[in-house]
UniProtKB/TrEMBL annotation:
InterPro entries: Integrase_cat-core, Retrovirus_Pol_polyprotein, RNaseH-like_sf, RNaseH_sf, SH3_Tf2-1. It comes from the Eukaryota. PROSITE patterns: INTEGRASE. Gene3D superfamilies: Ribonuclease H-like superfamily/Ribonuclease H. Pfam families: SH3_Tf2-1. PANTHER family: PROTEIN CBG26694, PROTEIN NYNRIN-LIKE. One of its GO terms (biological process) is DNA integration. GO terms for molecular function: nucleic acid binding. Residues 1-123 form the Integrase catalytic domain. This is Retrotransposable element Tf2 protein type 1. It comes from Schizaphis graminum (Green bug aphid).
Length: 251
């Protein structure tokens, strides 16, 4: 699987439509597009585009990375690869194409091949094979190539650490967690402004156990009740606090 990424200012339906069109015009239409329940994927324009091209649409659980499995693990590896450069003051939009090139031209232990080879059937000439900088280039070009060389020197170690981190994450916390129908629970909410703090709201009621890791929960949104699927890792047990108002936010 060879990841394709582009930097956009907004994660909206318009940007998503353009990104899908770019992919389709480059690689051809896929049989299935699988996404989470983000509004930029559930917009009418996306549904119409996929319908017109005969592409089946499948949706996972909103804000639950593990519901997308391989794709989200891949995304996290790329984020982990970019992070050290951002910490040093680099713009992530500048580093992203180089990181993707490194990821796609690195041999992955799970397959024994590079993602690029699995998609195209041949290995590319890598930018990392450039060893000598021609002396007749202008100064600004030389600076950019030197910057690229600085990035590439660190990438093998960063890529390995990113893979190891994802393996540890996937292996941890596999103990069984079980809830029963009718039980009151707290549900993790997505807080985009603070990625480092988990917050929960509730209590809400378990309506159905769909499978060992997915539950149907009755959610109250602005006074209107609706049923939503939630992964077990998005839920935690509620302990009655009868003296506090009915909706709580927890860190």
């Amino acid at each position: 699987m060879s990841p394709c990424s582009l930097a956009y200012k907004n994660a909206d339906a318009k940007s998503t439509t353009q990104f899908l069109l770019d992919l389709i015009l480059t690689y051809g239409p896929p049989r299935i597009v699988r996404s989470d329940n983000g509004t930029h994927f559930t917009a009418k324009v996306i549904s119409q585009l996929l319908l017109a091209l005969g592409i089946q649409k499948k949706e996972g659980i909103a804000y639950k990375p593990t519901s997308q499995g391989q794709v989200e693990r891949q995304n996290q590896v790329i984020i982990d690869m970019i992070a050290p450069y951002v910490a040093e003051g680099e713009k992530w939009t500048d580093v992203l194409p180089v990181v993707l090139h490194a990821y796609n031209t690195a041999i992955h232990h799970s397959t024994g091949y590079t993602p690029f080879y699995l998609v195209h059937g041949y290995e590319p000439i890598s930018i990392f094979d450039i060893a000598i900088i021609p002396s007749n280039l202008n100064h600004s070009t030389i600076i950019e190539i030197q910057k690229l060389n600085s990035i590439r020197e660190k990438l093998p170690n960063i890529l390995q650490k990113a893979f190891e981190k994802q393996k540890c994450y996937a292996d941890r916390g596999k103990k069984d967690i079980d809830f029963y129908v009718g039980e009151k629970v707290l549900v993790k909410i997505n807080v985009r402004k603070d990625k480092f703090a988990d917050r929960y709201e509730g209590p809400y009621t378990i309506l159905k156990k769909i499978n060992p890791v997915t539950y149907l929960i009755e959610i109250d949104k602005n006074g209107k009740k609706q049923a939503e699927k939630k992964h077990v890792q998005q839920i935690k047990k509620y302990r009655d606090r009868s003296q506090i108002q009915s909706v709580y936010y927890y860190n």
